Amino acid sequence: MKAVVGWEAFRDALHLITQLVPGRANLGEPSAVQITTTGDAVVLSSQDYDCAVRIELTEDIDPKETGSITLPGQLLTSFVRDLRGKTLELRTKPNSDACSLSCGGDTLELVAAPEQNFDPLPEIDPKGTFEVPTEIFAKLIDRCSFAVAKDDRRGLHGLRMEVESDRIRIVATDSRRLAIAESPLDHAPKHLAPTTLPTRTVSQLVSAIRGQKPTLRISPMTSQICFSTPGLTVFTRVIQAKFPEKYAAIVPSETSNSVRFRADDMAQKLRLVANVSQQELRSVELRLSSNSATLVSVSPGQGTATAEVPVTFQGVVDRLKYNPDYLIEGLKRADTDEIELVYEQANTPAKFLLGEGFIYVVMPINV
Predict the structure, then answer these.
(1) Mean local confidence (pLDDT), 258-267
(2) Of 23, 20, 52, which is closest to residue 205 (Cα–Cα)?
(3) Helix runs in 56-95, H state only
(4) Residue 76 in contact with residue 15, Cβ under 8 Å?
(5) Are the CB atoms for 27 and 63 separated by under 8 Å?
(6) What pLDDT score does 27 carry?
(7) Which of its termini does the chain have fewer beta carbons within 10 Å around, N or C?
(8) DSSP code of residue 194
């Protein structure tokens, strides 16, 4: 095998692969990357139990001799990352178990990883495939990923994806809060079952292709889902644990009280008063009047903090209490300067309208 490839493109491809397929060295499963040269491409592949990645580099390459070798992923990625140069030469010798990587005056002779039998990638059903602008899909993921559960004991550690005839929706919850973001979608397939996506894999994928690939092709299957763009294919297992089907039931439909405020103002004051809130029981009380909200945080043995925020309040229930971290995390992702908070009672869920097609529901702390 012998090929010359653009260093920067090769570096970025390795970085994405080792993020999506990091390996599990503590279980004797270090990451490995298979490099294959064909007549017109340099192909990088890796997979583990949960994810399979294939990247084809077709620009700024010169494949001189076809061949294939599997190399240790983390060491390869670290070395290539610290190189500097325009091109990188890959070379193996007949009957050799090593690959030479040269860039500028720097060279690494890297011993091959143990041979791995990478499974062939599944066939994709074009009838269930749809396309979405990458920027829109990335925005939906960003809006909701913060609200997933931090552990996987209840199946809430994933992002639920729902596709209807004219829209795509992402949902996340940890049982104390719920984020729902949706966007119009052209030419969506009919009768597509909801899918729960692995948060880490999808977040890293959209972060890598955002601003570079205009369109993302999505192909849901029974136990896997495929994301692809020209030159990139990612298969990942979906989360099989059952996502709450009736999550929409907690979204307030009747709301007699409304509070409007600027997102930045409220977030800054929440951070301020939350400094005295105990980690074990984080809480901030909102005391509302027609044109202001007094934020109060009390921590026995530490002190009391208060702050004023301009608001427009309409209603009768004027005492609310929430976990300040939940509010701050939601406000950070708002797409509009002015936020509306609506609710029925102090002990019922509150709905924050954070932008077009973006709602955030937070359970209160009973006053």
Answers:
(1) 98
(2) 20
(3) 73-81
(4) no
(5) no
(6) 43
(7) C
(8) P
Backbone torsion region of residue 47, taken as left when φ is above 0, otherwise alpha when ψ lies between -120 and 50, otherwise beta: beta
SS3 204: helix
In angstroms, rounded to a whole number, what is the distance separating the alpha carbons of residues 270 and 277? 11
Whether pTM exceeds 0.85: yes
Using alpha carbons only, what angle is made at residue 117 by residues 116 and 120, rounded to the nearest 5 degrees? 135
Task: Report yes or no: 33 and 76 within 8 Å, Cβ to Cβ.
Answer: yes
Percentage of the chain modeled with pLDDT above 90: 76
Measured CA to CA in angstroms, residue 128 lies from 123, 187, 188, 216, 220 at distances of 12, 11, 9, 14, 7
Task: Give dist(CA 264, CA 268) in Å, integer.
Answer: 6
Q: Which domains does the chain have, with CATH numbers?
A: 2-111 (3.10.150.10), 126-248 (3.10.150.10), 251-362 (3.10.150.10)
In angstroms, the Cα distances linking 309 to 228, 270, 333 are 46, 9, 19
- Asked if 150 and 174 touch (Cβ cutoff 8 Å), the reply is yes
What is the H or E stretch that residue 362 is in?
strand 358-362
Residues 185/130, Cβ–Cβ less than 8 Å:
yes
Letter string b/e over residues 285-320, b meaning 16 or more CB atoms within 10 A of that residue's CB? bbebeeeebbbbbbbeeeeebebebebebeeebeeb
Mean pLDDT within 191-207: 92
Question: Which residues are 158's β-sheet partners?
Answer: 198
Burial of 243 (0-12, 13-18, 19+ CB in 10 A): buried
- The closest alpha carbon to 225, from 153, 145, 151, 160, belongs to 160
